[in-house]
Amino acid sequence: MRKKLGPTTRGLRADARHPWRHENTGRLLLMSVINWQDILVRGLQQKGFKKFRASHMNLLRHIDVEGTRITEIAERARLSKQAIGQLVASCRTEHLVKVVSDPRDRRAKVVAFTELGQAVIQAERQVMVDMDEKLKRLLSARGLRELQHALGRLSEWK
Fold it and tell me: What global pTM score does this model have?
């Protein structure tokens, strides 16, 4: 039997008339991702990136190490180019990314990591290793492997 979610459910107020909105698989996955991201951001802040925010992750997670065109970032994030432009502006202000001409097509622009952005990505790797260790203690090594397997299958589900 699954534990009922309480009034602190992320994103929605408790609603006894519509409990399915809190207890469905999609909401549980979403809450898990938000929680995971919050832990990652706190870990990066503890590693010295004090100004790093979850909103920065909304852009950085969609940028390839060698850089990515704005149109492709927008497609990956399922946001408009204008919304991505706002995220890029915010991350540029924090010196996490830069916008450069695409070497394959000088008319196109590519968002690339600055040195600080690259340092964040490198620190992120260690924070995620630490998070996986904590997840192993929470779920067991087998439980974590099963979760990762299930999430991999869900990511390809059509």
Answer: 0.82
